[in-house]
Design a protein that fits this description.
It is elongated and about 95 Å long. The N terminus is likely disordered. The chain is about 75% helix and about 0% strand. The chain has a domain of about 70 residues. The chain is an all-alpha fold and about 450 residues long. The N and C termini lie far apart (about 85 Å).
């Protein structure tokens, strides 16, 4: 609305703030009022913006731009009917005012009348010289109702006119991903690059799209062009490193990961990735070093704790693994993967009470996966806790009723409790679903094979 922001209105702002400290009312021209109101809106000082507009209305009655500012604030405050009344008045004076159309469309959008909002914005396009804002608003309306195909059309128009608008680019990629039209997405972004060949962000997204269509060579070229466009673009080095790592080019991957660390703040994710590369290279001291860097950088990064614990498990350093697992659990006792590790380690240490504790916590966290129930039952069976094992088994069956492995284990419990009738009931379930029975069960309990 304010055509020339380059003019220095800071003295007008100082004059307005000085006026607020006195009982005097100074005169401001309409553009000064616009600047002052917009300044306060931008800084979220709505009450001060309203005061400026009130003075503007008195000094410049029916000034269209001041009225539009007033309706904008009413929309922000969800006073939609009052805002609409002002817009109807403006429409009578200036029927083709673009800002009035946009505000009307905003009201309809807030009322969840998105199709009607799109219709108003379409009408606005007929009277608009600068169409980018209107295209973007139409695209966002289509995005809101999940019409990704139509949204993509308008985001594409926006990208052609403003190739450096990051938000438009991300929204366009979001549509492409939802439509799974990655080949078309590559063509669209390549058209953008024809006009703006050194747009590092577009090159980065082109590379990601090439990965979707399984073209690793072109993806790598795209990441290289992103780096060529901006040799300080950290994200391009990271994406290139991830691809090199996937291609088992671990030394080059490490080099790119490490260079990315010089461009931005250290990242637990990057340290972990470097550790994974050293693991593949069998440089275990460096692997361990970078796991520790990752945890130090972000103690809440679960993947690094899990990798470190797994590192000590693979080395059969069970007590060290347990020590780190306990540290992780102190940070976040509600993360089930830590408890699974806790169970795994304690099983290696033959600490079955602790294994039981782990599975009890996993189930208590709402993780009802069959594997956890089965391993809990196995732990109880290994300690000859037959009664407790069958009680846990019956709880598991309520959540997983058609699993013959559970019936088999419950039958085993009843056998050892001397309850042959109950055992026979569960074995019958096993016989009916014999094809679904895990072969490993009979390896562990071969003496039951004759019963089924």
């Amino acid at each position: 609305m304010l055509d020339d922001y380059s003019q220095d209105y800071s003295s007008s702002l100082r004059k307005f703030e000085e006026m607020l400290k006195t009982n005097f009312t100074y005169f401001f021209d309409a553009q000064e009022i616009e600047f002052i109101a917009l300044h306060f809106i931008d800084f979220g000082k709505i009450n001060l913006a309203k005061k400026a507009i009130k003075i503007g209305n008195r000094q410049h009655p029916n000034n269209i731009n001041i009225l539009l500012l007033k309706s904008e604030i009413l929309i922000l405050e969800d006073k939609l009917e009052s805002a609409n009344e002002i817009l109807l008045f403006i429409h009578k004076i200036e029927p083709n005012n673009q800002d009035a159309y946009i505000q009307k469309a905003t009201i309809l959008s807030k009322l969840k009348k998105h199709e009607k909002s799109i219709e108003i914005l379409g009408e606005c396009l007929k009277h608009s010289e600068y169409k980018f804002e209107v295209w973007h608003l139409i695209a966002m309306e289509y995005l809101t109702i999940g019409n990704f195909k139509k949204a993509m059309i308008y985001f594409k128009l926006c990208m052609k006119n403003e190739p450096n608008d990051h938000q438009v680019l991300y929204n366009l990629i979001y549509c492409i991903d939802n439509l799974s039209c990655h080949k078309e997405g590559i063509k669209i972004l390549n058209d953008v690059l024809e006009k703006d060949p050194y747009n590092e962000l577009v090159w980065l997204e082109v590379g990601k799209l090439y990965l979707h269509v399984k073209n690793k060579i072109k993806a790598l070229i795209a990441f290289d062009y992103a780096i060529l466009s901006d040799d300080k673009f950290s994200a391009a080095y990271v994406e290139k490193a991830k691809l090199l790592q996937k291609n088992k080019n671990f030394l080059d991957a490490i080099e790119n990961y490490q260079y990315s660390l010089t461009l931005e703040s250290p990242s637990a994710f990057i340290y972990l990735r470097i550790a994974e590369c050293f693991k593949k290279l069998k440089k275990h001291k460096l692997e361990l070093k970078y796991y520790k860097f990752s945890i130090k950088e972000d103690p809440n990064y679960e993947e690094s704790w899990l990798a470190l614990i797994e590192y000590y498990l693979n080395k059969h350093k069970f007590k060290t693994a347990l020590m780190h697992c306990n540290k992780a659990l102190k940070i976040n006792e509600y993360y089930p993967e830590y408890w699974k590790m806790y169970a795994k380690i304690n099983k290696c240490l033959n600490r079955f009470v602790s294994v039981e504790k782990a599975f009890k916590n996993i189930i208590g966290l709402g993780i009802d996966e069959l594997r956890s129930w089965s391993e809990w039952i196995d732990t109880l069976i290994s300690q000859n806790k037959w009664e407790k094992a069958y009680l846990i088994g019956k709880k598991a069956k309520k959540l997983h009723p058609n699993v013959p492995d559970l019936d088999f284990k419950i039958a085993l419990c009843y056998l050892n409790l001397g309850k042959k009738n109950e055992m026979e009931f569960y074995l019958e379930n096993v016989r009916r679903n014999i094809n679904l029975l895990s072969p490993k069960l009979l390896e562990f309990y071969p003496h039951l094979e004759v019963l089924i």
